[in-house]
Every structure is written in C-alpha cells, then in structure tokens.
Amino acid sequence: MSSQQERVVIIGSGNWGSAASRLIGKNVTKSSRFEDRVNMWVYEEVLNGQKLTEIINTQHENVKYLPGYKLPKNIVAVPDIVEAVKGATVLVFVVPHQFIRNLCKQMKSAISSHCRGISLIKGIDFNESGPLLITDIIKSELNIPMCALSGANIANEIAAEKFCETTIGYENLEDGKLMKELFHDDMFRVGFVKDVAGVQVCGALKNVIALGAGFCDALEMGNNTKSALMRIGLIEMQRFAKKYYSNVKVETFMESCGVADLITTCYGGRNRKCAEAFIRTKKSWNVLEEELLNGQKLQGTTTAKDVYLTLKKDNALEEFPHMVTIYRIAFEGLPVERIVLDI
Amino acid sequence: MSSQQERVVIIGSGNWGSAASRLIGKNVTKSSRFEDRVNMWVYEEVLNGQKLTEIINTQHENVKYLPGYKLPKNIVAVPDIVEAVKGATVLVFVVPHQFIRNLCKQMKSAISSHCRGISLIKGIDFNESGPLLITDIIKSELNIPMCALSGANIANEIAAEKFCETTIGYENLEDGKLMKELFHDDMFRVGFVKDVAGVQVCGALKNVIALGAGFCDALEMGNNTKSALMRIGLIEMQRFAKKYYSNVKVETFMESCGVADLITTCYGGRNRKCAEAFIRTKKSWNVLEEELLNGQKLQGTTTAKDVYLTLKKDNALEEFPHMVTIYRIAFEGLPVERIVLDI
C-alpha cells in the first residue's frame, strides 16, 4: 500500500519554502494518496552552535527564515540531498535558481522513475539564445514532467494565513490536480492553467514592470499614470511570453500569477521601493541593495538587463518600448520623465 | 466645404466634460475634418451674479468645475440645448445619466441626420429586466450609432496633462477612428475595442469591486489579499458583462477601461475610501456621503444594489460570490471578514 503512495520531498527551506511546507505538511495528511512524512532538504547552517536541521526537527520552526510560525511535525529536515529525495515521486523545488543544476545532478539516481516536479522558484534564466525556464532546466537534468507555481504570494502573509490565491501551470491535467491537492487551502486558493511557460514569465517580468512603477512613484505622477504603466507592462509581459513560447495562453495573465502578482509587486515589493529610491537619491543600484536589502540582489534589474539583451539580439526592441525604457533609465542614464514619453 | 465638416457638440460641462473639452478643442483645430467651433451645452448656473456660460465664454475657464485650467477659445458655452446641438454631426455626452433621456428628447429634431455620438458617462442604468447601457438609452431616443469612452481617467490629472490612457468602444471602425481623432493626444492615449457594452460595464462595476478593496483595507489584510480580491473582481466583472451582453470581448478587460481603471479606483477612488470608513467608523453610507463627499452620492453602493437585485431575479447569485458578499456587507450587516471566507 505504502509503495503506491506519493512520496513528496521539498527541495529548499528558505522563507518561501518554509511557508510552503506548512501547506504541504497539512495537506498530505488529509489524503491517503500521500505518505505522511515529507522530507525537506535543508542547506545546512549552524546557528548559535546548533544545526538548522536539528532546530527544525526538534523545535519545528525555521527560526532563521520563517521565525514565529511552526512547521508541521511531519516535515522532516534532511541535510543530505540524496538521502532527502530517495524514492521521491513528487519534488517541490524552492531554492535559488543558481543551485538547481547542481542539485539535480546529485539527486538524479535517487528519485523514483515516475517522479514529477513543481517549481516555486521565482524568475527565469537567460542564456545566449534567450530566456530559459527553470522548469526546462530541471527537465533537461532529470527528464521529469514539471509544473510551475506562482502568484501574489508574499511568504509571511501566507504563513499568517491571510487569504490569497496562486496559479499552477501544468502540462497534463493529472499532474496539475496532484499539485493542487498539495497546496490548496481555504486561505491559499489554487487556480489552474495549462501554461507552464506563461506562469514563469509572469513571475520574472513583473519585477521589471515594478521598477517602472517605482520610477513613476518618484515622479509623483498620480494614479492614472501608474495604472496605465502597469497595464502597458502587463501587455508587454504577454507579448514577450508569446514571442518566446508559442503555447502561452491569454488567460494566464488574468490569473493570480499575472495581474494580481503584478499589482502586489507594483504597490508593495522591493523592486518598486528601490526604483523609487534610485530616482530620488541618485544612488547606484549596488548601494541601494546594500542599504535597503541588506546586500540581497534585486531581481528586477537583472531581469531588465537580460530582457534588453535578448530583445536587442533579436531586433525586437521596438516591440517592447516600456521594458526598454525601464532598462535605459536604470542603466543608461535616460531621464526618468521618458518613462511616459517613450511609450 | 464647411457643410462637409464634422460639427462637434459637447453635452455637459462638469469636471470631466471640461477636461474633455480641452482635448477636443485642441484636436478639432488640427484637422480640416472638423469645424473649429465646438459648442458645449452648459447647465446654466449663476456664480456671484454672473452666468456660468458668460464666465466660460469670456474667461475661458470653468471656474466652478475645473478651476485653474483654461479651456480652448473655440469651446463656446451655450445654455440652450436645442441651439447648442443645431446641425451637430458628433455628440459627446458627458452629463449625469439621469438627465440623458430628457435632453435627448429636446435635441432630437435639431441634430444632423447622419449624427453619431460617444458617451463619456460613467456607470450603467438598471431597470426591472436588468442592466441598461447609457449608449442604448441614447440610441433608443435618438437612433444614432454610439461609441463609449472609459478608462483610468481622473479629470484633474488629465487637465494637468499627466500621462494616461483611455479606451473607446465602437460598433463600426469608422466611428471609432473619428472619435479617436477627437480625443487622442500624446498624454491621453486612446485604445480601441469593438465592444461598446464591455467598456461601459467595466466603468460601472469597478466601483463595486472598489468597495471590496476598501473593506479589505479596513481589515489590514496585506497586499496578497487585496490583489487577489481585485483579480476576482475583474473576473466577475467579465462574467457579468458576458452574461448580459453576448458580444463582450475578453480583451476589453485588459484595456485601460478594465484592469487599469480598476487599479486606479481600488487604490485612489472615493468608493474605496468610503468603504474603508464604513467599516472603521460604523457610520451609515448616508452619513459618510455627507461627511466625506459633501453629500454627493456614491456610485458603488447604488450599483452594488442594482447588480444584486438583477442577479437575484435571474437566480445567478452563486455565480458572483464576491459582488454578492460586497452587497451583503454593505447592506445586510454581514461581518466584513466574510469578504474572503465567502468567495
């Protein structure tokens, strides 16, 4: 019986991974479809002389990345990636994307032959030929079907059980339903789209549009202007997704991963905040990351650069005037007023 | 030659009508397609012993409804509706909707036989059988083709020439293009949709969703929740429009009149503000209208009631849980926490 049950493993244990583990840990116990125990691979750290995995497994709290919220007792922290994923049939990826390839190579021989995965990783990658989805990177390493989850999901608000929605992009409906069962909750409503690429492109490009929202806030241009720029940004996100991924669906942009996440990010996120400060203080991005984000890197500026280089290579700059203007304000000293004039 | 030119007349001279007259007055002089003179029908009032029409025609400023911004000199205020519309080939309607029928009856015999119109009037009407578009009311009275214009358009921000967008819904493309020529400007970008109904339904229902945003703000539920409720509201706006107007287009909701106006209204508008105060102060809507709006009526509460009664009659309440919950919180004493629980 047990061998037919799904064995779920969470790869990652940061702020978002810990919040997600609260949902997953609860949901697996509701259905006989899943084994109760869920391993969570934790990048081992030592806090005040104690290992983080030990703290999680005894106090049931990730005191470093999600302090103040208990994790379910069936979430078991495991520091060794191969041991963590042994026999896994469902993998939940929630690590910074630069670690993905290396982790996949290590886990490849240990997972079940009928394993599938879902990526909660924000952003997309770029190489010389263009954008590269995180799910495609994982597929190329592990050769497993992949879903993606993204939405207006601030981890601490989810942990506090404040109502929100999310979107799962799937390739085949059965996998989508399985993943929904893992995440769905009264306070965390899961929507569905058959569009793995669109969901991930939204999650990456909204950070670029949020830089524009921050520039607009610094100009004190009023609500009409800000909502117009957000709308134009949403259209360019859609145009970009369709240009590089032909199966992208229009509906995706009306889901939580599209319009809702864009709104949240353009009103509350750190990309918006740093972009406003960039104009007001004239400080460099590096200094702002140091001062406002404790040295963490902004995703929006990196993505703006990647998008610009890709569009330039493909002779498509004029199809994306808003994202190009945002890049030029951020990196080429274009006056911020051009945010509306160059559309 | 002059007889082939379009004669444009603006019906109304409030805050929005006056801001629109600045765009129209400028645009007609750019093209030989239009007569330079544009009559503006003004509901006559006396200010400090002087008639409002005289003030507008001498000072070129609507000192009561749009103080601080000059109107173009080719905008001519006319207090008599029949005289104002004589020979008109293009009518721009921008009066409170309760005056429409009576005005139409008066102007019917004076307008040109090939006249067309555009409605800038916010909101829709309801009767016993359901929603009633302002453009359909005008068509039933004057039997002329009608367009509708709506968007994230706060009149004072437009007068201050802050960048924004708007949407024109048209029935036939030629009329749409004509109307675009009247309004389009570098700082007031006109988008197009072949969807007269969708544009107007957006303009009305966004005020209901903004009440929900205000309730959410009072609960201090955070950004995830607010953007989720806005997104669900947008989907219900779309569902409602499709239910009552079969030709409504999905794209309309991605235009300025859809997502952008919804964002503006849920962050900045008076419906949002009064709804937050309704929860925080427990005062009645009437008292809040008195205290916060100088006795002006809220559009969102009236529309919420009309929508509820229509859906109830049509046994469709369960298709619109969010708008129904907003109505019940606003009028039936439902606890505000249900805003998320009843979705």
Automatic annotation (TrEMBL), chains A, B:
GO terms for cellular component: cytosol. It is an enzyme of class 1 (oxidoreductase). It holds the Pfam family NAD_Gly3P_dh_C. NAD(+) binds at G12, S13, G14, N15, W16, G17, F99, A155, R270, K297, Q299. InterPro entries: 6-PGluconate_DH-like_C_sf, 6PGD_dom2, G3P_DH_NAD-dep, G3P_DH_NAD-dep_C, G3P_DH_NAD-dep_euk, G3P_DH_NAD-dep_N, NAD(P)-bd_dom_sf. Residues 8-173 form the Glycerol-3-phosphate dehydrogenase NAD-dependent N-terminal domain. Signal peptide: none annotated. SUPFAM superfamilies: 6-phosphogluconate dehydrogenase C-terminal domain-like, NAD(P)-binding Rossmann-fold domains. Residues 195-340 form the Glycerol-3-phosphate dehydrogenase NAD-dependent C-terminal domain. Gene3D superfamilies: N-(1-d-carboxylethyl)-l-norvaline Dehydrogenase, domain 2 (1.10.1040.10), NAD(P)-binding Rossmann-like Domain (3.40.50.720). The keyword 4Fe-4S does not apply. It comes from the Eukaryota. Substrate binds at K122, R270, N271. It catalyses: sn-glycerol 3-phosphate + NAD(+) = dihydroxyacetone phosphate + NADH + H(+). Its EC number is 1.1.1.8. The active site is at K206. Keywords: NAD, Oxidoreductase. One of its GO terms (biological process) is carbohydrate metabolic process. GO terms for molecular function: glycerol-3-phosphate dehydrogenase (NAD+) activity; NAD binding; protein homodimerization activity. Belongs to the NAD-dependent glycerol-3-phosphate dehydrogenase family. NCBIfam families: glycerol3P_DH (TIGR03376). This is Glycerol-3-phosphate dehydrogenase [NAD(+)]. It comes from Galdieria partita. The lineage of its organism: Eukaryota, Rhodophyta, Bangiophyceae, Galdieriales, Galdieriaceae.
